[in-house]
Records
---
Amino acid sequence: MKKSTLILSLVIIVITSLIYYNLLESNNSTDANFEYKEKKGRPKIMFPQPPPFDPAKLEEKELKDYANWREELKVSGNQFTDYSKKKPNREIEYFSNLPSYSYANKRINGNWAQKYLHMSSNVGPSYSEGGSDALGSVYDPVNEEVYVLSRPGHLYKIDDTKQVKWSLRNHKRNFLGNSSLNFRGLVLSGVNLPDNSFRLVNQQSNGGMEFSDDEGRTWTTANGALFQNSLNFKTHVVKTPTGRRVVAHGGNFEGNSGFDKLFISDDYGLNYRESRYKFSRSSFEVNTLKPHNDNSIYAFVRRKSDSKIFIFKLEAGESEFSIIKEPTQTFTGVDTLHGALVGGVYYFYVSSGNKNIYYSKDEGETWEHTNNTNDRNIVEMHPTKPNIVFKGFVDLFISQNFGASFAGNNHRLSPGTYVWDLEHFRIYDKEDGGSFTFSGFHFGSYYTTDPSDWSSWKSINRGSPNMLSYDAVTSEIHDKIYVANQDRGSQSFSGTPSQNGYYETAREANTDVFRVALSKNESSVWFWYWYGRIGRASTTNGGNYGTVVGKNYYGNWWATSMIPSPDNNEDAIYIPSGQNKLEKITYNGSTLIRTIHPYTFPGSAVSFNYSPVNTNRWYVGLKTGEFFYSTDGGTTFTETTYTGTMPGQTDKHTKQRQVIKGSPADESTVYYTGKGNIFLISKDGGITFTNHNIGLNVNEIMDFTVAPSGKFIFAACNFSGIWVYSTEEDKWFEMNGDDVPELTSFTDVQYIKSKDIVRFTTYGSGVFDFKIDVSSLSINDNVINETESVKAFPNPTSGSFKVPVPNASKDVLVHIYTEAGRLITNSKYKVVGGQIQLSLKNEASGIYLAKIFLEKPAFVKILKE
């Protein structure tokens, strides 16, 4: 490149950067007392779905094997289980929290614990018991018990009489079924057996019907039904003259053609028979309905060529569907169906396209098109008041006039509740009459026996562990956990539960918060909001989102890393802004001030960090993977000489950027990872790297943390689970077990040194602690080598000793560890005459190690006689 061209390019970069920063700064505001903003364009986070299946794409051996398998199934009548050899397990077996799990070839032992939460807020809009997502439910009408499905489709049972109302049944499976909003959460159902116990029944995405007699913990595949390619729609249960019936609407393939099919079981879900009616998916659209107060099942079949529907009915006393109506009305779709038998009259509703509402009061013979400008499909109808129907998205809305118009209640279900974003709404018939209504919002789960009465709703959120957390950070000094959530803003809670077993949360920030960080010796907490706002609050005077001081800096639905200043006494954070410079945002006591770091990178900076041992070692990762290091506090940078494959990133608001961290044990060791099955380690401060991914099998690493000794690295790998790396074996090991959830997004991990806990945070399943059994580790696995320049005297000591701390402030934080690595002291000491005085007077004889938090942490071993 010619010199003149290079100079011109640099000038253009500088001018473009100045325009960009000035435009952003012009939108700044210091008003932090904002409420929930309307959130448009949120990118969806897709939980793992079964891989798509299309027999038309099979070739050679795969096609032959599939054809043989289907023929064998057909001959057997889709028999999956021989009940003469295997009987359903009716004994209830609860998950046993094993006393210890071993990982990394038994080098690490410990046990798991989940945080069960109680969300409340006295700051308006206040609420007494909030929660997080619920996307599905099942109701036992005989025993009056309810089961709930969380965002990842995990199964919980609710007990409203207990302090912790939620108890886990299965977090290894996703029971939501079809991901379509019209069918999500409708394939899991339940049938009461002759002894009134409750059997759960469910459609497999690629397999048969299945059932569970132990509340969803274990499952057996039933015979007769077959579903493929996630063609799972609805499962209905009705009473018959001889017992109870299960009807499943799903689909499978015949040859290369897909069909909607209806499967019927009259033996409580053990065996199914296929209805003689089946419908080609290329020609027909099918939906099914069980009206309230009735034991019939209806199938609405819309012919795509002329938009006419045919209504089929299965009476409780009949064995097969029969066609009963062919109305002249045409329909744009049959997205949702709802109905009720009231006073001997069948009332039906059909919704389609999030616009059209059709209403019938003669079992579908004639129809009235009551609304063609609606913004959402109907989600339910009142079981005894046919003029009342329900819909929802940002709120719950009720129509009193057959869907012609709707009204909400300003995000209140009843006093003490506050809700946004309806995800699930289901009305169930009780066994002895009446109804039970369950609603699931982004703000929690609620129930009522009269859904038309706004004041009747009750919360069942206390003890729910679930949160949609993008990020998290723990203040060890204040024993406080901060999580950055979708919708629920930032919630904080103590690391110690209440006497009732749950953790009381405080609302630190509203709306969607993408990142959270601590600065200035953990006295300040920072938030990155969904619309580009950066906010700052106090960790000791928090719990009120109105105290957050903030300004708008960045675009919507976008975030990188947010890292506390290397100067622990500075109330500031650093952000690689996606441009070619680093930015620092400082709180000056009243407002935020942004400064642009002078160094210009040759691309978009999206990752930043520094060595915790020597904070003059800075590291930056670019969007395209290039890695830069500095040894002079960011004045100059040099690109690594490593030429292998670099970690990638995803340009969005989630933590899917490259991740950089320095070793707490060695200032020259730095780690670099991100998208891809890659984990780079440099032993020379970033000059060169080697890839250490033996045993690792992940799509990306969203976050990782390094044990104080540097010997173990723990990684949160999105939907690929959680992993631990042993430096001694140079190998990765997956951390799994009964108490570890699957099919959820692991977003954050932090090693809590004061408690020897590895804390994992998820988007969907809340916060999990892995408490390490320190007796299985040596002191060298928990702490790092002592610093020669810092000495203790007298040493050995019989109790008290002093440590000189030159150039220290008035108070110095000190951690003292036992030889086994257990933290016994986490306190600040006053500096008197250039030294601090400590005591091991009440401790047993042995070797201890003190970590003194100076500008650069210092370590010293002490022998207690």
---
Amino acid sequence: MLPDKVRFVFLSATIPNAMQFAEWICKIHKQPCHVVYTDYRPTPLQHYLFPSGGEGIYLAVDEKSVFRQANFQKAISALGDDATDPTTGASIKKSTGSSRKRDGSTKGPSDLFKILRMIMVKNYHPVIVFSFSKRECEANALQLSKLDFNDDDEKQLVKSVFENAITSLSEDDRGLPQIEHILPLLKRGIGIHHSGLLPILKEVIEILFQEGLLKVLFATETFSIGLNMPAKTVVFTAVRKFDGKETRWLSGGEYIQMSGRAGRRGLDDRGVVILMIDEKMEPNVAKDMLKGVSDPLNSAFHLTYTMILNLLRIEGVSPEYMLQGSFFQFQNSVRVPQLIKDMDIFEKRRDGILVEDEQLVGEYYQIRSQLELYRRDMRDVLNQPAYSVPFLQPGRLVRIARESTTENPNGDFGWGIIVNFVKPQQPKAKMGGNIKTLTEEPQYIVDVLLNCAPAENDDSSASSLLSTSVQPCPKDIKRGSALIVPCLLNAFDGISSVRINMPKDMRLLASRRQCLATIKEVESRFKDKVPILDPIKDMRIEDALFQKLVSKIHVLEPRLYEHALHNDPRLPELYSSYESKMILVAKIKDIRRQITQAESVLQMDELKARRRVLRRLGYTNAQDIIEIKGRVACEISAGDELVLTELLFNGVFTDLTVDQTVSLLSCFTFGERSGGEDPTVSFPDTLKQPLRILRETARKIAQVSQESKMTIDEKEYVESFRPDLMQIVMSWCQGARFADICRMTDIFEGSIIRSMRRLEELLRQMVAASKSIGNSDLETKFTEGIAKIKRDIVFAASLYL
């Protein structure tokens, strides 16, 4: 939006797509943008692994960025028996933050304690220890409460800096538990840094760390973003994190961002990164994490009602103009030339495939593809734990087939034998229940003896769940490796009615080879048509949908077998050629869709839907001219502008006291979920009534949005207005001390202060909104609200100012 004459300087440490960003600047401002880029790191890093329960560290990636495969395997092998592969479904006892030793006991020093003791002995401090939750951060720091890393002079300096920092606070605020409890830790050279701390504490800890008075700092991921505070060593307490939806491996970009804190330029010849692992991981996962690239800079641009309304007020500028010039739009449209090139290549390949009797082959292909789809659906039903689990006895033959991919086209392992099966302790699903109502079961793991591709060492079992490292034995090899492989139920391609007698000790190679020989004998006896369990008679599946699925298969199978090509000797070659051609046709179709999508203005449908919402609620008229409600909404950006404007025009705030008003507005500024009980249970009627009106208003807006073709979840939208701080804010407005309101909740002090500061910003915007419609009473009320909350430690001045 800035004029083209303005010159820019963009600085960043890690952007792999800097050239793309520069191209966007060139396009929208019509001026050259020079990129100065280097991969050189002044202080190289060494990446070590510390296995749970271990006694030492293993160099996984050296300072030349070479992955040490042998050391990696040693580290994985050193994991304790209870730190098993996550894919096997066995429970994993986390060692991070606990005092567990390798044998599973809780006596003796914890893994973290051992690492930090080694770091201090080798003089690798200062060290930053990254954890992925605020509570874990504090628990880890308390583990070291008996250690002391500072001498008397350093302790005196810490005390002096700390006392000078808190002189601006009142006597009551200086007695806050968080302030009193953290000083003894700081004096011993141990610090904590996370978003739940009081802002003034975070700042004093940052100052102490910069001055070298803290030797160990326990921090969350936020410490690695926006703060230039490197250390000599960085420790990760876990390799997985919860991202709000699932627990997953750290991405390469996240790992680089945090590990980049290791190594101080001009002070250290190298930085040390130690990754604590308590789960077995594949080498590829480790390489992607330790040697991955930074996350690219991607646009997070999204439309808001305030943005749309403000753009409608400006003559010569429209929301469409904003969308067309956004980095989000540029990133999509810049792919078009490459997409066209790819499409031309695929079209030439498609035209180069000539299939004899193509129409006839096409008919056969359609029937077979549809039949395979129905069979896959049938297989999914048969593999439901409710139906398959009763038949998972040792000795039963099962057919295993992994889904084929481009890298691993052959995923058919053929028939194997169930060796072991441990059922998780979960409620049983009822036999014969409706398929759609079957509850989601935990991952069932079955150990199956399979004939696998020859391996260097013929161990009794595979190290991980049917991964790409385990391959079927090729047909031209007489003897493969007899491996016991843990398999998920979705890898089952058939459960046989045949069971065989099992040798007592399957760890013996001779026993396993004997079982594979028995499988071949069974296949020979039944002429490669090993009988499988009947889904109706044996497995007792009585669901109507499944019966319909079976009927469809029974209709298609005769058509397939009676087709002119079914017994044609040319079929394998013709079918393979036609299938290759269809794959290319599907790719071409997908690329055309991507090109169409990239060339059109993205988010245009959302813009149209949002405009419909604004018209229906009376914020704009049919000509998109802003009405009085729209002018009010233009002033609000710190909270949901539509709900706040509706509350304002419905006179909700007029009938509330100042304390009630400020308390209600806290629902718009607090976004965290507290783990306690529903806070509204103990609310007085003075808070319950305004909250009910707020939720009804939000529900109405959600319904109008859905009618206007907006994608919105009504329940989720209503629940986004969190009432957790309402009673706390009410007490604060009535003059309560900060220590008193902290005792009312388990929410971190830093989170309360952050929400209150956002609340003050929202109140200022509500003052401006009231002024825009000439309502002096509301303007006075919101101004009084600001005066009531803006006091003491909540709005203490920053130490950096």
---
Amino acid sequence: MQKYLCFLILTIVPFIVRGQGEVLDNNPPAIDWRQINTPGFRIIFPEGFSEEAQRMANTLEHLRAAETESMGEKIPKKISLILQNQNSVSNGFVTLGPRRSEFYTMPPQDYNFTGTNRWLDLLAVHEYRHIVQFEQSRTGWNKFFYYLFGENTQAGMAFSAAPQWFWEGDATAIETSFTHSGRGRIPSFNKVFRSNLLEGKRFNYHKQHLRSFKDYVPNHYILGYHFVTHLRRRTGDSDIWGKVSNSAFSWPFIPFTFSNALKKHTGSYLVKNYEMMMDELDSVWTGQLKELNITTFETVNGRKSKTFTDYSNPQILDNGELIVLKSGIGDIQQFVNVKSGSKDEVVFIPGIMNESGMLSSAQNKVVWNEMHFDPRWRVRSYSVIKSYDFETRQVKTITDKTRYSGAAISPDADHIVTVLNTEDQGTYLVVLDYNTGEEVKRFDNPEKAFYSMARWSSDGKRVVALKTTTEGRSVVSFEVNSGVEETHIFANHENIGHPVLYGNMLFYSSPISGIDNIYMYDLESGKYYQVTSSKYGAYNPEISNDGMFIYYNDHTVNGLDVVKVPLDKSKWDQVVETKDRSVKYYQPVVDQEGHEDILNDVPDTEYPEKKYSRVGHMINIHSWGPFANTDLNSAQFGVFSQDVLSTTAISLGYQYDAVEETGFGYLNVSYQGFYPIIDFQVSKGSRSTVESVTNENNDIEDVTFNWDETSVDVGLRLPLLLTRSKYHRELSIGNEVGITKVDNFNQNFRFLDQQANGELYTNVATVSYYSLLKQSTRDINSKWGQSFVGSYTSSPFGGDYDAGQLALRGTLYFPGIFKHHSFYLRGAYQHKLWKLDTLNNDTYLLANQIPLPRGYSHSTWEDFFFASVNYTLPLWYPDIALGPVLNLKRIRANLFYDYGYSEIDLINEAQRVKLQREDTYRSVGADVLFDVNFLRFPADIALGFRFSYAEANNFKSGGSKFEFLISNISF
């Protein structure tokens, strides 16, 4: 009878070795925060950023009413905006739970991203439209859900009601209408969509929306912008999307509510509207190419397949080798030596590149910008400069913990010119020593202009760069020794990019004809020439070492090719009056909005500033009420809080267990403002279970046990992000101390040892580490990598129960035989404290933390060793949609062989018996998984089945087994 007690304890104490908790994106505690309050915004910013904070306060207040006119005319309530100046990523977002917006203030270098806009102005226009959208979403039933559940549910319902492309497409349309250079005006933005459509890849709606592993499909920004713009063009109704979204948001739980809303307001369902858009785009883009004379060129790179692959940013080394940055749907970014008539030679794989839209080489060296991260503070990152020497095959980190963007190496390879981005939003062209990374010269910037894409002239005496101000963009050069600035192309809103100064010839890219092409400005004659006439876009000019050829990128339906043409001015057309082939697809929306010049007259109000206290705003309740739980046998009610600076997360509530018909209250607090994260959990409630036990007459009977339980856990975590190369690396270590107390144990069955009420003290130490090579879209697993997770649970502080467990597991990844195949090994070991003593039955058995060989049910052992060999491969990319219900994107398989070895000791000191049993587990099988989308939701879900054969042993009968799978979870 007493042997059942240790298993009963499994249900008495709901103790689980906790995995690594959520890590919030936040800043170092040393930052002093300030705030500006306006009618519509609380702008929170680091000390020293006041000038830009004031400018954003005025800009956003100026935009508030105008941006709501075509989306319900309901001005959003006040919102917090955090200006993040510690990050080297150029981004911004609006979110709920908690409701806030964040601007990452460092401007990007890529001219085809920002156009001629100032970065924060572009963010203000785009992100405020998202604020308007969220306000619009709080209507009808979704308003009811907000009051019932709070912000998390409002957001979830809003995203289920309207597809991703609507959110970003509408914001991009507003960005295009409210500025002179939004993405809808930039030909590069739609070049993939355009070439796909005109080259016969007219994908159905589901493939265009849900994307594909087979073909490269433009993202939801591009689809959305064109869809939103098309409907406004076709209907002439500036508020058509306000009406559609209002109807969809009002009934978010109805399947296909967005399509129904389109039917209500346009007379056609979603797919029909999509087809009308595609018809219109086919017509206008075909017309754009009418009578276009395309440049004759020689393609340099070879293609072994039609898989979308970019061979971008060609660089001619001094030794004559052609180096490109290769990437695509099946390739991660890699520097490749392109050799005519032979296979590309992969030379080096960089880390996470900070995209600047350019590369630079000299003396057989290439330089670029790469992202480095603060190990602990996820909002703080750096943009460093790295180089690779193609002669010595050595990589060099030239700067560390810096905020440089764009990098170009001088012809003698002694210096680098780059753009320094200061934390107060200043940008300066600086020259660095290549060997030391030290700054040797800084060019003045009294206009507070934004400089970008700086490069050396061919003779190394000048630096040419793009210069963007409120007047637009110009092309300037600096004489390196004197620092004198000279303007070559005066400021306007032509989205000029990628300047290359070769002798007296200034090459650059421009969309002035409606298609991106390469032009040349002759510094001596002052004449302009069109160098290329491309079908879909020409980019990134590079002059050959002998000055005889121009290498550049020409866009095709299969990606960017490297092509070359003779450097012969006599063959180029002098630009007198450029034929404008721009379709100006955006123009009707611009006219409907009527705010194209709104940023020209932003007020200059001086708002009062004051200190922002993180402690004073620590509690910020954003969601409440009942909420979803993956366990269908329980229900939870509570409130959630997180401050807008993501320092403190709190949840307080009550969980009811329908099986036990009991419940408990809980409080969870995670404070992440210190270097180690502090976690605190406390819970108190009642528990109940029914167990079948053997009584003194050897009869089986069901016995109900009731008790009260109180648990308190306090822990420290240290998550460290260590990525500094092509491998994503992270290390997390933690320790948690807990106490669980059982009171009022109501046993209506007598145990020999009378052990019931008591306390369990635990200490749980955890460590996890992974190092995984970057993956392409088609890769199922990383080609090279390692992962490891370990935990050790003990009870060193006394108490009524003993608990102990060591669990270790790891995985090694290797490339398979063919591309996108993966071979990986898994191993694990677990040791439990195992003590079954008749007179001292105080063992608490923890849940297993390692996998069991597939095909077997779970067991309990003292020691268990596990090993597994797996081979994963893609089988087919079908891209089949069964109407709006199911979309099948990929079928893949995993073949496996699992091995396990167990040992168990049963000790009975009273009877002086020791029984040791050991056994082996062997199984073989295959998983087949289908990557699908349901009901047009973009999240890929893996469903499938597993067939396995398990060898019989002393504990298990073995045999064949068929199971259904959700991801890798069998049932």
---
Amino acid sequence: MEVFLQLIGWHRLAIPSSLRLFVNGDITLFNCGENVQRFLNEHKLHLARIKNIFFTKITPESIGGLIGLLLTIDNISDADITIYGCHPIESIVKSFMSSFAKMKSTKIKIVQFELNESSVINLKGNVVITPILINKEKEKITENSIQEDYIMNEINVNNKRIIKHNNNNNDSNNINNNIHNINNDNKNFNNNNEINLIVEDNQMCENNFTDEIYSNNMLKKRKLEKSHMDTQNDTDSVIINNIKQTTVKEKKKEFQHICYLIECPQTPGKFYPEKAKKLNIPSGKYYGILKSGKSITINNRTIYPEDVCDKNIDGRKTLIIDLENENDINDLINHLQYKEILYLKNLEYIFHLSNEKIINNKIYKDFFLGIKNVKNVKCNLSNDSLKVCPFISSSSLNNFLSKLLPNIFLKYKVDTPIYDLPYEISINEQNENDKEKKQRYNNFNNNENIQKVLVNNIEVDHQKKEQNITICNNKFNINDQLQEQNCSYLIFNPLTKFILHPYHKIDICLSETISDLYPDIFNTSKISNILKENEELLKHFHKFNETQINKMSSYPCFYFLGTGCSMPSTFRNVSGIILSIQKNFSIILDFGEGSLYQLYWMSTSWINFCSIIKSFRIIFISHAHADHHVGLYYLLYMRKCFFPSLDDPLILIPITLKKWINLFNELFFDKKLKFVYLTENLEIKEQIDDENDILSIHVFKVNHINESYGIKIENKKIGSIVYSADTRPCENVKKFSKNCDILIHEATFDDELLGEAINKKHSTTKEAMDIGLEVQCKTLILTHFSQRYPKVPKINMECSSEMQKILNKTIYSFDYMNIPLNLINELPRYFTILLNLLEKTF
């Protein structure tokens, strides 16, 4: 029987820290963050064999990939899966399984560990897992200042819900002016200085507010609250429109953390046949019984295993440790020392999933690195830039495309994360006396000094860290490194195998590891020959890169994060689009699992990545299928980590997700997120810069599952943009996209699969083009391709002259694609050439 652990996740912006335990064919996961299923699929690591999932903590970082993983397994096997974790894992799993992620054939069992319960889990082959519960669930009550300066007004005009939404952090005069203008537009609003929200249906809009119920039960008036940004003293308070600052109690929830001990069975001692022969033991079954550690009786004589075998070797042990709070370090160490024989005797490995702050804590480091003959493996490299790419196939395609059009197909630029930098930027105005932070803020906004800031901030830290880190790879002899660095953290590439059993095979195997940041799986010589044969086609790209680069505007633009449907494939991730109107204003159009990584990969720098996250003002989720919204929750969580004082974006979401997102909000946020539940004829007015710069949003129903919507966005900077989301061709899409500037339409299936498109309520490529032709849009962008077309969507180039007109306006989307709107009308011709070239190449 073979037992090994394999490193799966190592970076919170790629695949958060996670491990894969293999026990005689069965798989157990420790944590399941975003992109786990995509990574396992990419590297053919047998999703269907997963039997157990253990969680060290319950946060969006550790559970972000659970929904997608379970849905994928449900589609491919009739599995029985047991999920282990602390509170509130049970309510989370039951919530999504009862709403948008119902299992057809997979049976899910949930084991929720409670404090002071001693329980062990026995896996196949007598491998034993012992949970170590660290701290009680706590709710910290803190008093925070609340500033009521958020404006959102809703009225009902001609059966349309119209929301006037202002999320700007302006001064009191500007806010007064905004309210005055709104009141002039609508006589239903009070002419006083209060900020009000009037809702005709209290099920359709939720926010962070204090209720005041009036006698008219058709109306509910709610004062909207917004946390004052880290108020330090009374002098920081501001009175806006006679609404005084109030003090409320916020609950900050801390859940238990669980570490795990894995104990392998004994390795039987060596059997000596010659000793058995001397004792006249017949060969066959008696040999097997003795090898298994049992005694036998022959001719009234008892023969014991030790008569013919060496002594059994005790199984080796492994600790998996994941802490977030430094206050828990002493509790953990005391617990391990109190039961030293159980936890520390025969210990082979310690896998540290904790963050840098924990593992570099002196008490923590001295204790764990002081344990003799134990390999301490660092599994969380989130404070470093990516050194390897987890998704080899999509990166290989991205590399190829970026060589042709480097400013359209963006790829990762090595840049070290500085997680406190966004926070310092967001609160800079409140820290004017802190010269050091102010200087970092100024440097942050000075493009010439960007790299200097990053280098200066990380150089000292890295020098300190590297004193206790050894990087292991297959260029060196592992055993030599381990002997030399017995008292340091070891770093290994993803997919490294740590063999735990049997004893004589204990080793670290590097043969399957990934090591390239920019991998290339394609036949280089073949591609080179094809490119030489098509030099005339390449000249078009050279011309574009030379002449158009100077015309390219950074804003407004699209970022296409994921362009596939249903589940991630090796070449395309699931749906995700960002419309960036200007530096401080972006809109999300669906956000499937892994979209945050996709954005990270195509960001030009760490600063660029943080700026885009900060710019999100509106998030539109078209419907409740998991491939369109599961990435949203990790994004919101990380955005809160990056910018704790920043206003939340306005989230437009189908009411079918109400139960789920309310639970998510309650568990992981200290205040109410801002939701508007989608309805037919919903209109939203959003102010961008000034009162003359208004963004208009129209939401309309489309023909897909229940509560499916498309969206039309209009503004003077972008013209009119329509996103169909998932739909059959329908009248609403045609109505709202008539003469629009840009139509983004799904094209899930090729024309030969019309029947499947009708059955699953999707569109074919030709149907999408027919709509583009009929509505006379200026540009058509096709997306949401079936994963059966991983590299290039199947396009029928033989068409009528009418269809040729729309072909000349069509862009075929790819992951990691950046489309500047000022060049969007010129790009279709290059994409036609690109598809031609890709068809020949692949």
